[in-house]
Task: inverse folding
């Protein structure tokens, strides 16, 4: 943003503390703001007691954190354990049938019922972000889902996202980038979203081939050409969705088996699925990819414009560790830059970060997450609602407009005064809390 | 390329073009005393509307050959036939509420128009159209935002989207507002003044202006009845903003549900129902504004058209060129603009080819109607030569409207 249209923008975008070193309490708050979705009452003290390094180490190993209360609550969401084909059969097929029979009553009912799928998904994400003890895990789920964004509003994708988040994103975010990339490449949700499922020899669709290089790996200035995009699209022909199982399948008869060259990598005639797998490994290990991922992680966790030296260091860690995401994230959050007072409270919260941090700040019990989901929509970041493959912005400027801020304020007032049905905030002085949650200071992290 | 004149002559309907009558809104505006700001209202038909079934090239046999079950019958040939526009094109009957505006020359269509990028991905094509830079993904802001940003005398309500999220087309430096509902915009309750002192007055300026103007009190006029639905609601509120004189220059609304891959229908059905809502909402808007429409141009867009040939599911797939509807004061209506590329030589052997870049339509409207001085920053990657404009509107410069004598025949 070149021009600050409103003084409140200066309030929000101006940098925070000036002291060189953060005191313990500030460090704890910083950790909770960036590596969790904000502090609940008492969290700062707990982390100071435990020791910040110990807390971070624990957060880097979410599998060691039991998180039983949240796990138990997720059991109440029936679609969360269903496979793609189960969801399609139960929620999508009835819609198709009603449409075929032109039965508008049935269609309306089937449509209504089908909303359950996305509602469950939204619910689990809100519950986990607000209440899970594996806070850094949820922050990284948000980051990686957004990095490999799939839009619920595109066709059948709203039925495929349950498995996408559960089976594709979550199991891979602390492993190797290559495995995460491979999982997304073979996920029905992504195959449908970026049209690769429809791409075949003689009927090329370049959508996925372009985005995997531009957004998922090399970055827009990653040095690939239009010819590389077309050639990579040919490599990925035949990667599609099995209509029977609702899962990934490679169909050799749809694959373009003629020779091709992508980014200098030659493929002789007669190849198959191994071509795409080779390219995914190639792209994962590319220094441009390392830099792109490092930059995005630093933007999310450190600053809108992170210091170059930090990005380079994190990129080197990514390459040396063969894309080990735990080590890469650790390199960011244990860096001196992460703890530099310059970046303390220097980022504006995204709507998701803002809303969840407000819920946590008032220790709210969320029995009905739908008012939270609605607030996210009003403030501009509906869950699973980013249409473009770029996902939502990780930079502050995108979230600052008067309308969105007023909606943040209205949410703060509604939350603090217990006007959101099914969301109970534990507050004594509702007005005082509303003013705090609605303040410019609380928009920052 | 097929010469449309050939069809006009051969069908004996060449005279339909007739002498140029003044657009009814210009006459009305001349009679009225309002000297409001010029307003551009843009509607995005997300999902890619099937333009070939909206502005139907009934004069071309290939249209009927390609669409055995969903084609709109030739005017006069059957019930629910197309409504003749000019002897070659006809309008889908669900748009009959647009016909009076076409006949009184306040509505025009552009055909075979679109974004030149070959993508058939909805979001890419929408993204390219909204950024105004087809093929360039790194553009951070939207072209309507850039157009408004060229202005020095902006009001806090210069650019408003009737939506929850600021659309790509308005994101950027112009400080456009996303307002899902006029009645809910602003901070409510007893804490409002505390928040105002916390953030500074200017942030609440737009909300205050709105509150003072209280646009929701303005009921639709002239017997206008907006259809229930998102577009009707949005246009009703845009009309209220225009009438309140709070400095609106660009308004934006979405209209969804056009992605008719299966069961599209012809005269009746899915597309017809959606088109009726669309047309009735725009007709209500024009009727509601009455003479104020002399200051307003409403323009529609959609990311791409649909395949000429219907598919195996009685629907159409993603195509290329589409139509644009332009309604309002200054519009030289009663005409279908653009060079018709014909259906015998198709883009990539399947789609209607583009003969007018959408930026030539918007460039003309922004320049002539809104008075944007230069398109250089609005469409930075494009040759914005006025020579390519189709001449859809008359310049609104000074005087705001032509003298009562009007354009002579």
Result:
């Amino acid at each position: 943003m070149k021009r600050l249209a409103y003084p409140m923008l200066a309030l929000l975008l101006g940098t925070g503390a000036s002291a060189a070193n953060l005191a313990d309490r500030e460090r704890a708050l910083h950790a909770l703001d960036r590596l969790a979705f904000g502090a609940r009452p008492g969290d700062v003290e707990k982390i100071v007691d435990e020791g910040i390094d110990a807390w971070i180490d624990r957060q880097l190993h979410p599998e060691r954190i039991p998180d039983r209360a949240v796990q138990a609550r997720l059991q109440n969401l029936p679609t969360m354990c269903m496979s793609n084909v189960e969801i399609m059969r139960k929620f999508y097929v009835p819609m198709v049938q009603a449409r075929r029979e032109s039965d508008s009553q049935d269609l309306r009912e089937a449509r209504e019922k089908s909303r359950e799928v996305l509602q469950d998904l939204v619910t689990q994400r809100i519950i986990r972000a607000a209440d899970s003890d594996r806070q850094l895990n949820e922050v990284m789920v948000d980051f990686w889902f957004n990095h490999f964004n799939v839009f619920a509003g595109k066709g059948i994708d709203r039925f495929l996202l349950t498995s996408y988040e559960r089976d594709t994103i979550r199991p891979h975010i602390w492993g190797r980038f290559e495995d995460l990339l491979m999982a997304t490449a073979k996920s029905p949700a992504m195959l449908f979203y970026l049209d690769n499922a429809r791409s075949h020899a003689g009927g090329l669709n370049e959508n996925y081939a372009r985005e995997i290089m531009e957004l998922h790996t090399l970055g827009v200035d990653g040095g690939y050409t239009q010819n590389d995009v077309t050639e990579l699209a040919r490599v990925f022909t035949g990667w599609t969705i099995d209509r029977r199982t609702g899962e990934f399948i490679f169909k050799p008869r749809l694959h373009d088996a003629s020779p091709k060259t992508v980014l200098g990598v030659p493929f002789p005639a007669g190849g198959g699925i191994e071509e795409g797998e080779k390219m995914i490994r190639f792209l994962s290990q590319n220094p441009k990819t390392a830099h792109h991922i490092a930059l995005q992680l630093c933007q999310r966790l450190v600053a809108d414009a992170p210091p170059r030296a930090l990005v380079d260091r994190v990129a080197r860690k990514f390459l040396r560790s063969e894309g080990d995401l735990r080590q890469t994230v650790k390199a960011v959050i244990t860096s001196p830059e992460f703890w530099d007072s310059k970046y303390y409270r220097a980022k504006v919260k995204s709507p998701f970060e803002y809303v969840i941090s407000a819920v946590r700040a008032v220790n709210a019990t969320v029995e009905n997450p739908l008012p939270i989901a609605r607030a996210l929509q009003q403030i501009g970041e509906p869950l699973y609602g980013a249409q473009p493959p770029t996902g939502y912005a990780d930079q502050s400027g995108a979230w600052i407009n008067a309308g969105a801020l007023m909606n943040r304020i209205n949410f703060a007032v509604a939350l603090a005064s217990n006007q959101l049905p099914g969301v109970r905030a534990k507050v004594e002085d509702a007005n005082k809390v509303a003013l705090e949650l609605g303040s410019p200071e609380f928009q920052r992290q | 390329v097929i010469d449309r004149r050939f069809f006009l002559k051969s069908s004996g309907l060449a005279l339909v073009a007739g002498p140029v009558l003044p657009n009814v809104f210009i006459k009305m505006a001349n009679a009225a005393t309002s000297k409001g700001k010029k307003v551009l209202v843009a509607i995005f038909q997300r999902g890619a509307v099937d333009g070939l079934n909206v502005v139907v090239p009934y004069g071309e046999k290939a249209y009927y050959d390609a669409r055995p079950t969903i084609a709109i019958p030739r005017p006069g040939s059957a019930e629910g036939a197309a409504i003749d526009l000019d002897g070659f094109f006809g309008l889908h009957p669900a748009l009959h509420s647009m016909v009076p505006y076409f006949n009184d020359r306040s509505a025009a269509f552009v055909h075979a128009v679109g974004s030149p990028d070959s993508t058939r991905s909805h979001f890419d094509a929408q993204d390219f159209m909204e950024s105004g830079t087809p093929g360039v993904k790194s553009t951070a802001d939207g072209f309507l935002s850039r157009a408004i940003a060229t202005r020095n005398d902006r009001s806090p309500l210069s650019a408003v989207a009737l939506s929850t999220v600021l659309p790509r087309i308005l994101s950027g430096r112009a400080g456009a507002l996303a307002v899902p509902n006029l009645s809910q915009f602003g901070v409510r309750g007893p804490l409002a003044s505390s928040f105002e002192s916390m953030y500074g007055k200017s942030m609440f300026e737009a909300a205050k202006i709105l509150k003072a103007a209280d646009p929701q009190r303005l009921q639709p006029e002239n017997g206008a009845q907006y259809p229930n639905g998102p577009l009707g609601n949005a246009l009703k509120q845009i009309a209220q903003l225009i009438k309140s004189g709070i400095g609106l220059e660009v308004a934006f609304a979405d209209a969804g549900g056009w992605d008719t891959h299966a069961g599209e229908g012809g005269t009746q059905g899915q597309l017809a129902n959606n088109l009726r809502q669309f047309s009735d909402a725009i007709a209500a808007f024009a009727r509601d504004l009455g003479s104020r429409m002399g200051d307003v141009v409403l323009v529609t867009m959609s990311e791409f058209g649909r395949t000429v040939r219907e598919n195996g599911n009685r629907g159409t797939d993603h195509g290329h060129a589409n139509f644009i509807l332009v309604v309002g004061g200054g519009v030289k209506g009663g005409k279908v603009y653009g060079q018709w590329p014909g259906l015998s030589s198709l883009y990539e052997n399947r789609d209607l080819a583009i003969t007018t870049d959408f930026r030539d339509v918007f460039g003309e409207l922004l320049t002539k109607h809104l008075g944007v001085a230069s398109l250089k920053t609005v469409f930075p990657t494009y040759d914005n030569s006025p020579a390519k404009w189709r001449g859809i509107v008359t310049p609104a410069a000074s005087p705001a409207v032509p003298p009562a004598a009007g354009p002579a025949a």
Summary: Residues 1-7, 14-19 of chain A have pLDDT under 50 and may be disordered. The first strand of chain A starts at residue 239 and ends at 241.
